[in-house]
Every structure is written in C-alpha cells, then in structure tokens.
Amino acid sequence: MISKLIALMAIIQTVLATIVLAPTAVSATSKDIGVVWINGAECKPAAYVKLAEAFQAEAALAGYNAWVGIPSFTLDTPNPIQFDEAAKLAKAAVVAKGFKAGDFYIAAHSLGTVMTQDWIQYNPDEFKGQILMGGGILRSFRSNNNETGLTHFHTVIPTLTIAATKDGLYRATRAAEGYWHGVTNVEAEQKGRFPVVLLEGGSHGSFMDDTMLPTLVVDKDLLPEVSQADGYKIVAEEMMAFIKNLDGAAEDVNQENDAVATFF
C-alpha cells in the first residue's frame, strides 16, 4: 500500500509545475544566483511570488541576477515523499529558463522549514545555504557540549532564521531560543553560521501574500504591525545580507539587525 502511494505521488509530482521567476533585467556584470523557495502547509506556491520578486529587486541592487524556482506539492503541502524530486526539479527548471552558473540557495516558510532541514541533512551539496522564515533550526539538530556549556549545531550548511515578532504560529520566544543557541552561546568555530534576525511587527503571514493565507494562518496568526511591502523589503535585505556573507562580499559577517538588538 505504501509503495503504491509513493508511486502515485511521484507521478503527481511530474505534472506539478514549478514557478520560475527570471530576473527582470539580466546584467552581464552581475553574478547569477538561484533560489529554490519552499512553501508552507496548504500555502499555494503563487503566494510567494511577490516576496520573491522583492528579493530579486534587492539582489539586483547588490549586483546579483537572482533566479527563483517555487516547486509544487500535492495539496500545496511539502512532504518527505515528494521533496527530493521537487527540489531537484525546481533547480532544473531554473536552469532550463536561462540560469547559467552560480550558487543555489534554498528558502522555506513554515512547515517548509521543517521539510527543508530534514532533506538538507542528506543532501548538503545541493545548496550553499538555507533561509528559514516562520520557523527555525530544529532542536534535534543541536546539542550541548557538556565540557564547555556551548551549543554545537549538527546542521550541515549555514542557515539564516528570519522570525517575526507578531508570528502567531512560530512565536518570538522560539526565535529567542534560536538566537541564544545560534548566536550568543554557539561554539567559536560555528560563529556566524546560524544568524537569527527579526522582522519587527511582522506576522507568520508576512512571509507570503496576505491575500492568499490558508485557514490555519488566518485562525492562529497575529495581526502584523508592518505593511506587506515594508515587510518584504526587510526580508529581502536580510536574505541578501546572508547571501553576501556566504559569498564573501559583505563587510560585516556577524549578521544582526536592529530589531534583534532591541528585542532580545
């Protein structure tokens, strides 16, 4: 029965389309980067187009041509059976649309952050870094060094967590926990690999199109205190700061925004 279900979902995956967003203007002097964007539970892939376009605009200002692929899952919910093929098909779709060469990153929202982390542990060479929104590094991927009292992460690639202070599903207290372990208490050799930044006044729905929120988010989320456009701008800036850090193009490798300093 399980094998039949896996086969059926594999067939469905082959006909589910990946949304590909090419840069609005490709600069010959800019560096190409690719981002695969994973949706949250019952969130339509199209709900991430506006934020992805804001990211592309920010990337262009920083001297990058950003290509984005947003894969689809059955019932608009990322799951472990389809994830491997979805991520790889999204990368292939971006390449087919004109992406030549460069680093790939993976971004995810809500449940997508969980599925992404689990998959990355077995596929560390597929992406240079991961960006988690409305979710953070799982507790199972860190441990305490009993000799030093410091936190050691088992996460295999650099990871940025972007949390929102008005998130009703991934509460700010979880972000504070992630900040303590990933920034304040992390082992020296892992310093700077797991930054945590805040979207002040943002909600769980601030990481997607607020006209396309699923029922769970509508019922459980808090009301944002930042406009959708302003929230997109902040998220895009933090994503690019992280990518520039990994690319060696940033002046400050210890990424931390003003909201973190005041909130934590």
Features:
264 residues; Rossmann fold; 38% helix; globular
Compile the SSE list and pairings.
Blueprint: H1 2-15, E1 19-21, E2 31-38, H2 49-61, E3 64-70, H3 80-96, E4 103-109, H4 111-120, E5 130-133, E6 142-144, E7 151-153, E8 159-164, H5 172-184, E9 196-199, H6 215-220, H7 228-247, H8 258-263
Parallel strand pairs: 2-3, 2-4, 4-5, 5-8, 8-9
Antiparallel strand pairs: 1-3, 6-7
Would you mind describing this structure in some detail?
This protein has 264 residues and is an alpha/beta fold. The protein has one domain (33-263): 3-Layer(aba) Sandwich (Rossmann fold), CATH 3.40.50.1820. The chain contains eight helices and nine strands. Strands 1-3-2-4-5-8-9 form a seven-stranded mixed beta sheet, sandwiched between helices. The protein is globular and about 50 Å long.
Question: Quick summary of this structure?
Answer:
With 264 residues, this protein is of the alpha/beta class.
Low-confidence stretches: none
Radius of gyration: 18 Å
Shape: globular
- What's the CATH H-level superfamily name? Alpha/Beta hydrolase fold, catalytic domain
Count of folded domains: 1
Per DSSP, what share of the residues sits in E-state strands of 2 or more residues? 15-25%
Order of helices and strands: HEEHEHEHEEEEHEHHH
Helix proportion: 25-40%
DSSP summary, beta strand count: 9
The CATH class assignment is: Alpha Beta
Largest sheet: 7 strands, mixed
Structural class: alpha/beta
> What is the correct CATH architecture?
3-Layer(aba) Sandwich
